[in-house]
Every structure is written in C-alpha cells, then in structure tokens.
Amino acid sequence: MQRTYQFDGFGFTKLSNELAQRLTAGGLRHHFSDGVLFQQQGDDGNGLWLIEAGQVKICRFGSDGDLTVFAVLGPGDIIGELSFFAGTPRQNDAVADGAVCAIWISAGLLNRLLASNPDLSLFLLQSLAKQLGTALNRLDEQRNLSATARLARALANLAGGEGEKIRCTQQELSDFVGVSRVTTGQILTRFEDAGLIERGYGWIELTNADLLRNGFG
To answer: Is the pTM higher than 0.70?
Structure first.
C-alpha cells in the first residue's frame, strides 16, 4: 500500500470507502504516467481530483524553474477543493509520481453530491481546515527554525515513527525545507553520524524519531 504523507505533519483527511465510491461512480477515470503534470497553477477550479491509485506530488514551479514540494498524496486523497470552494484558479501544480489513476469529479456532480450528502460537506471542511493549519505551521517554521531543525521535523513527520523507511529523494527534502541539496546532504550526514537515521539508495530510516521530532536544535 502506498504511504500518503505531508511534510508538515498535517496529513490530508481521508475519504471513507462509502464517500469514495459515491465520487468514483459518477467521475471520469484518468491514467497518468510518471512525471505528467495534470493540474497546473492557474487552471480553472471547476472540479476535484480523487486519487485512486499511485502517488501525486503537490508542488509549485517557480518562474526560475525551482520546484517546491508541499505534499505527496496517495489513494483516498483529493486535490483541488480549495480552488473549487473559493472560486479561484488552482494554486498548485499536481505531478504524477509514478503511475497514477485519478478520478475527475466535475463541478456539477460535486454540487449534486454536496446537496444530498452532508457527510461529504463535513469531510471537505475538515480537509480545508487542515490545509490552513499546514500553511500556518509552515510559515512559522520558515521564520523561526533553522534548516537543521526544519529538516529534522520533516523527517520525523514523514516517517511517523522509528523503523519505517521514508521513500523520498534528497532533492525533494531540500526543495521543501528551502535549502540547497548540498546543505541537505550535510545535515543528513550529521544525523547519520549522530545515530539518528540510516540511509540507503532512495530511502531514509529513522532510529531516533523523538529527538528528530523535537527539532534537533
């Protein structure tokens, strides 16, 4: 089973199986290969995506080509509710991280479901509230924590506990924390030397999650 995570530790609210089935029944299924950009910043917010299989990077490409990764979402997560309710263009890009199957739920279908399913309305409100909390936490960390502390917390939130391998790249970590890949590599080496993590190709395993979660300085 794919792991869904968000770097700030505010995992998106998951749809129940019943709600997911209602959305899937009327939606349109799409398949995307690795690296496909299927939602772009500035697109119309005229519906939602429900991820059925695979993982999706929620990110933003800067004018200089730099990439900021905000989250990696998986089965049961939805994309686009903020733009839909606010009536604004999309704020972020969505890129397939490997093979992805996603269900497109149009505005018309979603409005009909909201009118007849109060539990769906509650779910979407919870999801929006968590996104707001995530954004506020990230702003606070960017202002007040060092790169070392931000990276430590990101790793702890990613893994959720000790003994679990994190499947993400050093570049993704550096993009999110907002420091260079070289600096990220240096900090990870410090963590490894201190016995906090173990590393392999494409994975990091936490050996002292509590210390990392407290920011490690």
So the answer is: no
Are the beta carbons of 2 and 14 closer than 8 angstroms? no
The angle, 0 to 180 degrees and rounded to 10, between the axes of the packed helices 107-116 and 118-144 is: 110
Rg (CA), the chain: 18
pLDDT value at 11 more than 60 = no
DSSP 135-203: HHHHHHHHHHS-HHHHHHHHHHHHH-STT-EE---HHHHHHHHTS-HHHHHHHHHHHHHTTSEEEETTE
pLDDT in tens, 75-113: 888 888 888 888 889 988 999 989 999 999 999 988 988
- CA angle (125 as vertex; 124, 129 as ends), nearest 5: 115
Tokens of 123: 């779910």
Collect contacts of 185-191 with beta carbons under 8 A, ≥24 apart: 187/147, 187/148, 187/151, 188/151, 190/148, 191/152, 191/155, 191/216
The single-letter code of the amino acid at 57 is K
* Tally of CA atoms within 13 A in the half-sphere of 41 that contains its CB: 11
